[in-house]
Specification:
Layout (H helix, E strand, L loop, with lengths): L9 H4 L4 H22 L3 H6 L1 H10 L6 E4 L6 H9 L34 H15 L5 E6 L6 H13 L3 E7 L6 H14 L2 H16 L4 H19 L3 H6 L3 E7 L3 H11 L6 E6 L7 H5 L26 H15 L3 E5 L9 H6 L4 E3 L4 H13 L3 E7 H4 L3 H9 L6 E5 L16 H5 L6 E3 L4 H11 L6 E4 L21 E4 L4 E5 L3 H8 L6 E5 L2 E3 L3 H10 L3 E9 L4 H9 L7 E7 L9 H8 L3 H11 L1
Parallel strand pairs: 1-2, 2-3, 3-5, 4-5, 6-7, 6-8, 8-9, 9-11, 10-11, 13-14, 13-16, 16-17
Antiparallel strand pairs: 10-15, 12-14
Helix pairs in contact: 2-4, 4-5, 4-12, 6-7, 9-10, 14-20, 16-18, 21-25
């Protein structure tokens, strides 16, 4: 029997020897590779965190002790050993295992994790709750190195350090280069300095020095200064965290199970804020992922033997079209610059970065900074395009209002992953951008129905003279797009004539609606082209001609979305209205394939057809 077969909960880990725990790491890694090759998922990050995960659960007593994961990308091993091993074959599938950390799924998931940067602040809150209620349990926040570019991370570090909270922060660093010699030395010194014997020795010296009259305190401060600077020789950056009030430990080899266990055992006996720096390799243990960790960060199904994709996507995506259009625009105008927040590959900007390195800015996981920096660029002569996924642009809402819209700065927002994104689920669906953007003064919100319209909108965006948002899905482009005869801001396009009813849409969903209306006579189909401004005259005329019968279909939240905007336009129409607003309901949408989700929500061809027939 394999060791993994004997492990159902973290309590089973504690029965293992260190040698068995090391063997288990290899089995868990193989288990992850096998199943993710069949389901797709975030592979490289989770492979890099296997030893770290098992060592944490081996030493600490979860679920009483709380382990918060800053990003769910690295938590597959955590799921496997916390009672979800049998569910793992249905990872990211509708009705199956959640792709990220989900408190509704397991008592071992203490706080939601989908957007990087929230773990330390959440853990800090738990520390305060435990302090007030007298709970002695440990609180551990595991963060990725990318989170160190996130402002919320430093806000949490600052507060925890000032409050001297009993908080353990583990930095899973898979990017920083540290040579083998320096890494090995630092690993040894970190374990030595945190050992019970050394800590007792240090505390004894500290007590003795404090009790020495006149010179004791001065000698103690000098010794602390020497210790801190010696650490700085071994690993630059340790002073930063110690200045913030943390005891810095590391770096430690994140793939040496015995060293990790020893380090965690040592710090589990310490008080106050601890910062433990662990060096890992993204994709560790699977050569294709080690060779190309960016590709295997989020990957579809693949052949386990060589890592090659099982199905090749022959059609380009909207991100591909966006990236190519950006290059063409930049060739024609040297003021065009691209800004993103750790999404260069996903947004299609990698070719732009290669072609125009001096005009490409990846700010890391710092969406607020990206937006405000772009506002500064726009106010002083540049033409910035900010490419950020819809779900992550939410994190910069205040900056969009205060720094961009308030001063009407001509910043173009390329909002990728708008609408349903499928297996990544509730933390990643881009459902709210229309509702929160269309309420902002000076903002224009454009929604292309296909790749031709996307190119047209991008090329016209800066001529609008203020902030412009262009939202488009994660999908491949439309296979047979309609001819594009130009685009005018605030003007709808009638795709099909009719007077029995009118269906309003915006975005690629227009093609599903045309399919739904193919066999229904007399129904007009109108592409609004934007959520703001709306073509008030066309909307009013067509609804009046259809005797008040209309349907609005959108790939965003129904509350405050395009349908709500259409109702605002029609609020003064002096006739009864018979309508349906088809959008996402007032709840968070689970993970699953986009088409099955649309069918469940009545947004597929059959659902749209049924709603149209219902009002006729």
């Amino acid at each position: 029997m394999s060791i993994l077969a004997r492990v159902a909960t973290p309590q089973d880990l504690k029965k293992l020897s260190i040698e068995e725990l090391t063997e288990l790491c290899a089995e868990v890694r193989e288990f992850i590779i096998h199943h993710v090759s069949q389901t797709g998922g975030h592979l490289a990050s989770s492979l890099g965190a296997v030893e770290l995960t098992l060592a944490l659960h081996y030493v600490f007593s979860t679920p009483e002790d709380k382990i918060l994961w800053d990003v769910g990308h690295q938590a597959y091993a955590h799921k496997i050993i916390t009672g979800r091993k049998e569910l793992f074959p249905r990872l990211r599938q509708m009705g199956g295992l959640s792709p990220f950390i989900n408190p509704a799924e397991s008592v071992y998931d203490p706080f939601v994790s989908g957007h990087a940067g929230n773990a330390i602040s959440a853990a800090s809150g738990i520390c305060e709750a435990f302090e007030i209620t007298g709970n002695p349990a440990h609180v551990i926040a595991v963060i990725g190195d990318g989170s160190l570019s996130n402002g919320l991370t430093f806000e949490g570090l600052n507060f925890a350090g000032v409050r001297k909270q009993n908080l353990i922060v583990v930095l899973n660093d898979n990017e920083m280069f540290i040579s083998s010699r320096v890494g090995a030395l630092a690993d040894y010194l970190s374990r030595l300095m945190t050992s019970r014997t050394m800590r007792g020795f240090k505390e004894g010296i500290k007590s003795t020095l404090h009790n020495m009259p006149l010179v004791g305190e001065s000698i103690y401060r000098l010794s602390k200064h020497i210790e801190t600077n010696l650490k700085g020789v071994v690993v630059s950056g340790s002073n930063l965290f110690e200045e913030m009030g943390f005891r810095y430990i590391g770096p430690i080899d994140g793939h040496n199970t015995a060293h990790l266990v020893e380090g965690f055992q040592n710090i589990s006996r310490m008080q106050g804020p601890i910062f433990m720096h662990v060096i890992t390799e993204k994709g560790h243990g699977y050569i294709p992922a080690e060779m190309d960790p960016e590709h295997f960060h989020g990957v579809g199904t693949f052949h386990k033997i060589n890592g090659e994709a099982k199905t090749a996507n022959k059609r380009p995506t909207y991100a591909d079209v966006f990236g190519q259009t950006m290059i063409e625009m930049a060739q024609a105008d040297e003021r065009i610059v691209a800004v993103t927040a750790a999404m260069a590959s996903g947004t299609g900007l990698k070719p732009f970065a290669k072609a125009f390195p001096a005009r490409f800015f990846d700010v890391g996981i710092a969406e607020g900074h990206a937006v405000t920096m772009a506002a500064g660029m726009a106010k002083y002569g540049l033409k910035p395009v900010v490419a950020i996924y819809s779900t992550f642009l939410q994190r910069a809402y205040d900056e969009i209002i205060h720094d961009v819209a308030l001063q009407n700065a001509p910043v173009v927002f390329a909002i990728d992953r708008a609408g349903l994104v499928g297996p990544d689920g509730s933390t990643h669906h881009g459902l709210f951008d229309i509702a929160y953007l269309r309420s902002i003064p000076n903002m224009t919100v454009l929604i292309p129905r296909d790749q031709h319209m996307l190119r047209c909108m991008l090329n016209q965006a800066f001529s609008i003279g203020g902030p412009v948002a262009i939202r488009y899905p994660r999908d491949s482009v439309v296979e047979e797009p309609l001819p594009c005869h130009g685009f005018s801001v605030g003007r709808a396009q009638v795709l099909k004539d009719g007077t029995r009813a009118v269906v309003f849409c915006a975005g690629p969903g227009c093609y599903r609606i045309l399919e739904a209306c193919r066999d229904i006579e007399g129904v007009a189909v109108v592409d609004l082209c934007s959520a703001k401004p709306l073509d008030r005259d066309t909307i009013t005329e067509l609804v009046r001609a259809a005797s008040g019968r209309f349907v609005v279909v959108e790939d965003g939240t129904a509350q405050g979305g395009v349908g709500s905007a259409v109702l605002e336009v029609l609020s003064g129409l002096d006739m009864p209205l018979h309508f349906r607003l088809l959008g996402l309901p007032d709840r968070f949408i689970e993970h699953g394939g986009s088409e099955p989700l649309r069918a469940q929500l009545g947004l597929d061809t059959q659902g749209i057809m049924a709603s149209i027939r219902d009002i006729l």
